[in-house]
Amino acid sequence: MEVLKWEEMTVIYNDGDTSMDLFIDDLLEMLDTLNIRIMIYKMEVANLITSLYQIHKAQFPNIQILYITTDNPETESHVMKTVNDFDFNSNRTTDFRVKSKWLLLTFPVVIKALDEILTGLCHVTVIHHSVDGCLGVNTRVKKENRNFWTPVPNFSRVQDIFPNVKFHFNGRRLLIGSLPYQLIRKKVINDTLVYSGWMVDFLEDMAADLNFTYEITEPKDGSWGVKGDHNSWDGLIGQVMRREIDILYSEYLITAERNQIMDFILPPLATSSICIVYRNTGEEEETWSSLLKPLNTTVYIMLFVSFILLSFLYITTETFPLLDLALEQNREYPKSWQICFGLLGCLFLQAGHIHPRTSKGRYLYASWLIFCVVFAAVYTANLTSSLLVKKPKIPFTSLGELVEQKTWGYGLLKNSALQGMLEYSTDEEYRKAWKGIVRQNKTDPSVLPDEIDDLWYKVMNEKFALIAISAIKHTIPQNDCQLSVIDRIVTAQHSSFAVPLNSPLKNDLERYMIRRLDTGLNLDLFDLKQSESCSSPNPYGKVQAFSIDNIKGSFAILGIGLLLSFIGLLLENSLKFRKRLNQHDSE
C-alpha cells in the first residue's frame, strides 16, 4: 500500500464465517493508520450489478479495489466474470477494463479459475499463499495480444504491481463514427475503403499515443445529424446520442444545442472562421479607370484640398505683400487663373513659368514643387504596376456583397452547423444569405446538397460560391490557382470531435489534447501553413506586354480632349461666321 499510495479504495469481500469478519476488522484498522479512505461492500450476487455501478460512480477515474475472496472458486469466478464483462453491457457508460485496479487476496485454486475469465480487465494482481506456505504475488501481463500471469519479484514501483498501466488503453478497440468532409477523405483502393486526410493522421497519432485500435463506421443514412420529433436526431449525432459509437470523429462546430446532447473534447481541435470559396473566371478588372486606380479616393480628396489651399495662400501672399521690397511689389504679376494653371502643371512636372516675387511665395512654391515630384514618382510607379500586371476581377468581397449581386449562385452543405448558424441567426446579413439559398434551392437543389463533392462540382464548373468553414482552404491543392478564398467572414468558430454524454473516454482524450498543446503542436488549423503562391502557371501577378486594353483609359482621355477641342473649334467658327454675317448685313 505504501508503494501504491492509494488515497481511497474499496474493500469488497464475500460473506464468510466469523473469522472473515475479524480479518476485515484488523485490515481496516491497519488501513486507517495509512490514512486511506475506505468504502466497504459485502458482495452479494443479487446486488452485484448495483454495487459495481455505485463503485464506478464513486471512484471513477481511479477505481482501486481490494477483493478478499474465500476458497470457493465458483463465487469468485462469477464476480470477476461480471466485472470483466461489465463494460460490454453498460452501454459505454463505464470503464472497469482500463480504469480499475484490482488486488485479489485469494487462494491458488481461484487463480486457475480466473485464467480464462480475465480477458478484458487490464490491471489485476493476486496475493495468495503458495504451496510452501509463503506469500506469493502474481500480476496480469498483456504481451503480443496474450494475457498471462507473472510473479512480482519486488514492489518498488507501481509498474511492478500493475505493469499494464504504461500501456494506457492496452490495445482496446474503439468504434469511431465519421463522415468524409474537408479534413477526412475516403477512396477505394483495390476494393478496400481507405480514409485519409489531416484528421485521419491526427487520429493515428492519438491511437498510437493512447494505445488503442479503431474501426471507422458511417451512419447508414449518410447524414451528419438532423433534429427530429421528440428531441431525436438521425445520422452521426443520433449514433452518439444512442451511444452506438465510442467517438464521433469529424469536423463538428461546437454549438450550445449540440453541447447538450454530447460532450465535445476540449481544447477544440480547430478554431476557424467562415469563408467563401469561388473559382476565378478569368475576367479582368475594367481598365477604363486605370489612370485613377493608382491612388484611392481619400488621396484624391486630400490632393484637391491641398491644391485649393496652397493656391489661395500663394495668390494672397503674392498679391498683398507686406514686408517685401517695393521692387518685388511693382513686378508684373500674372493673373490668378494663370497661377492656378501653373501650380496644377507642377503635378505633371511642368513647372518653370511661375516666378514668385516674394520670399513667402518662393517658400510655398518650393514646398509644392517638392511635393509634386514625390507625388508624381509614387503615382508613376503605381500606374506602371497596375498597367503591367493583370488583376483578376473580384466579384464580391463579403457575404453581404455576395447576397446582393445577381450573377453568382451560392450554397453550403445541407444539415451542417453552418446551415443552422445562418438559418437561426439574428444577424440580418446571415438571414438574407439563408433566404437566398432557400430561394435558389427551389429551382436548383444542388445548392444545398448532402455531399460536399456536389458543391465542389458547381464551384469548378459554374459561377458558384461555396460558403464553408475556413479549414476547407487547406484541402485545396497548392497548385490549384483557379480557386480564391475570402476568409474570416465570421471568426472564432470552434470545432472538435465528441463522445457520448458522460463517456469514460473523455478525460483521457482531453488530457491527450492538452499534451499536444503543451508540446508545441498547435492545433489551430490556421497554422497549417500552405504556400500562398501557385506552383502552376498563373496569369495573375505576372508581367504582361502592353496592349490597347491596358491603356484604353488614356485613349479615352485623349478622345475627350479631341472632342472638346473639336467642339471649341466648331463654336469659334460658328461665332466667326456669325460675326461675318452681321458685318455683311450692316454693309
Automatic annotation (TrEMBL):
Ranges where the Ionotropic glutamate receptor L-glutamate and glycine-binding domain occurs: 180-242
Keyword tags: Cell membrane, Glycoprotein, Ion channel, Ion transport, Ligand-gated ion channel, Membrane, Receptor, Transmembrane, Transmembrane helix, Transport
Annotated Ionotropic glutamate receptor C-terminal domain residues: 173-533
Annotated GO CC locations: plasma membrane
GO biological process, one term: detection of stimulus involved in sensory perception
GO molecular function: ligand-gated monoatomic ion channel activity
Keyword Glycoprotein: yes
InterPro entries: Glu/Gly-bd, Insect_Ionotropic_Sensory_Rcpt, Iontro_rcpt_C
This protein's name: Uncharacterized protein
Subcellular location: Cell membrane
Pfam families reported for this sequence: Lig_chan (PF00060), Lig_chan-Glu_bd (PF10613)
Taxonomic source organism: Patella caerulea (Rayed Mediterranean limpet)
Membrane-protein topology: Multi-pass membrane protein
Entry's transmembrane regions: 298-316, 336-354, 363-381, 553-571
